[in-house]
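Example 9 (inverse folding). The structure is encoded as follows.
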């Protein structure tokens, strides 16, 4: 093997090492383009065909059924309508960006009344409206709940949530949201996690890619971007080049504690100043064992009960752990594990370290 081959192998190994240790992320995973987002749409509908598991006392269900029958030319008094095979539901969906007429959407069906199950039901034609009150889609079709609910006189069995279901491709888009991306001359990139350092890195990466100052940071969460003349009318191609741009996102040091579950999540930038920790445990066990003394047979004595209490106190030997300034996350965890700290104990210790001012990170308690 000659020197040239050795150099090439060494360069390949170096690139492999850098690729495995790099924390870079694609720009499309760090930012969102302002205006390119989904829009929620919702509607009120009726699910029919239920096997006696529909609404039993919801007045608005009977009113909706009466109005639907009247539109079909059937006149029925509302007071005389008592049907347990229908249920009032809310139908929700998200209209994706650049959705076109005729496209299909998945919809979620959620019971409004006291229906016990939507199993086997069919959603009747339901218009879905946006926040502006306009109809953007219509939904209809058989509801799938992905489970079941069976109830008897003394026992019931349920799998998953029977009062919420979905219809895959159950809505048809009828109206489009006007937005022409290719007509834009400027774009705004919104950082999913606002940070001044990340915004600066995004600007630098974009300007280096195109060789001209196209991007500028407005604040920690917004990057203003001017579309170059060569991409005027071809904004889709421009955005495609931006999406795969590698950026190193930065983040603030944060420790998240969940006291209910004992879960602890710490970022890699967490640092601890010089601090000494002492961990010990005090266990007290109290046992009540009454002593019963009964008289002999045919005697006139009385039964005597003498209480007996045993108290056992155990205290673990406390260990003091001293940490130097600038301790990293890995060193902190290893040090605390060495003194036998459980996750719930660690929560109390982290709160104490934060109170002492030694924790150089944001502490968030859920």
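The amino acid assigned to each position is listed next.
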């Amino acid at each position: 093997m000659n020197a040239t081959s050795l150099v090439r192998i060494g360069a390949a190994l170096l690139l492999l090492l850098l690729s495995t240790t790099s924390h870079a992320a694609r720009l499309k995973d760090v930012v969102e383009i302002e205006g390119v987002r989904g829009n929620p749409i919702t509607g009120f509908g009726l699910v029919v065909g239920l096997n006696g598991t529909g609404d039993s006392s919801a007045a608005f269900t009977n009113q909706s059924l009466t109005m639907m029958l009247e539109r079909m030319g059937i006149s029925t008094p509302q007071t005389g309508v008592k049907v347990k095979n229908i249920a009032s539901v809310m139908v929700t969906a998200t209209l994706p960006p650049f959705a076109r007429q005729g496209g299909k959407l998945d919809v979620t069906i959620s019971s409004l009344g006291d229906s016990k199950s939507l199993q086997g039901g069919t959603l009747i034609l339901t218009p879905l409206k946006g926040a502006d009150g306009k109809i953007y889609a219509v939904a209809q079709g058989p509801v799938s709940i992905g489970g079941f609910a069976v109830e008897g006189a003394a026992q019931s069995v349920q799998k998953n949530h029977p009062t919420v279901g979905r219809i895959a491709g159950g809505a048809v888009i009828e109206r489009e949201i006007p937005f022409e991306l290719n007509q834009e001359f400027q774009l705004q990139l919104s950082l999913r996690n606002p940070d001044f350092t990340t915004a600066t890195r995004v600007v630098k990466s974009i300007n280096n890619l195109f060789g001209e100052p196209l991007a500028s940071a407005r604040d920690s969460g917004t990057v203003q971007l001017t579309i170059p003349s060569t991409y005027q009318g071809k904004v889709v191609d421009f955005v495609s080049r931006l999406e795969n741009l590698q950026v190193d996102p930065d983040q603030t040091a944060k420790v998240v504690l969940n006291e209910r579950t004992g879960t602890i999540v710490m970022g890699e930038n967490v640092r601890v100043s010089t601090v000494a920790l002492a961990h010990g445990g005090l266990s007290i066990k109290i046992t009540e064992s009454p002593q019963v003394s009964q008289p002999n047979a045919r005697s006139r004595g009385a039964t005597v009960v003498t209480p007996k209490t045993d108290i056992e106190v155990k205290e673990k030997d406390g260990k003091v752990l001293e940490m130097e300034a600038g301790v990293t996350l890995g060193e902190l965890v290893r040090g605390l594990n060495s003194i036998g700290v459980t996750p719930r104990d660690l929560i109390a210790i982290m709160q104490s370290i934060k109170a002492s001012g030694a924790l150089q990170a944001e502490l968030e308690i859920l």
